[in-house]
Amino acid sequence: MKPIHSILILLLAAFPALSQSSAKASSPLDLSGVWSPAGGGRGPGAPAPPQIVLKAGYKEKYDARRAEERQASARGEQLAAAGLCEPYGMPGMMQVAIYPMEIIQRPEQVTIIGEAFSEVRRIYIGKPQLKLDDVDPGYYGHSVGHWDGDTLVADTIGIKPSVRGYQEIPHSEQMHITERIRKTGPTALQDQITIEDPVVLEKPFTYTLSYKFVPNYEMVEFVCENNREYVDANGVVRLKLHDK
Questions:
Q1: For 165-198, what is each residue's pLDDT tens digit?
Q2: Is residue 2, in this structure, part of any structural domain at all?
């Protein structure tokens, strides 16, 4: 009778895909695969929600907007948070309801694809960050990264102010996002996000997102074709009942 470890070796040799899959799942430096938000994105044992302190001028507008949203909700209406069919951008795309994201990893680049709106961001590994004036502001900005042990540290700048912020918090072009992405187990992933903005925030804040590995999942196309909703003059989302 062969020892158990010899039998396992023979099985892995006979089924190399099984061996590769197991190695990928256990390697802390391999983030590849499809990951779905866990526990609403926060996961079990996550830190308390961050304390966010806005500077004068921004806080009053933010509080007034939240009050308008509560009043609209009480009337059964929904205020438009942004333009219809616009992508979430950063950092919102890292947590969109229950929609998963796929990480494709190469030594020189980590690509993150969100299923919602088919959003794509690229983190360039081992490259210096650009100066802010050299970045064309966009939805995802410019991201560079490096490995700190088993943690991918990503640095992102260049998010244009019109992109919705964390919990719809306003931000300026000087917003700076730092992420620490790492596995907390073979099938668990965590993204600790710190946001700095010297124009809007009194101090930086940090929050943490959690994900679970989804084996054998194939991402599906998600394209926004919004032909029935529109925003009226008061910023309320309406449904067009008849084509005109």
A1: 998 899 999 999 999 999 999 999 999 999 999 9
A2: no
The span from the first CA to the last CA of the chain, in angstroms, equals: 79
C-alpha 107/C-alpha 120 separation (Å) is: 18
Inter-residue contact 237 to 78 (CB < 8 Å):
yes
In a domain, 58, yes or no: yes
The 10s digit of each residue's pLDDT in 71-98 is 888 888 776 666 678 899 999 999 998 9
Q: Which residue in 199, 210, 183, 5 sits closest to 94, CA to CA?
A: 210
Closest CA to 90 of 205, 208, 221, 193: 193
Domain count, the chain: 1
- In the DSSP assignment, the letter for residue 69 is H
Other Cβ atoms within 10 Å of 67 Cβ, number: 10
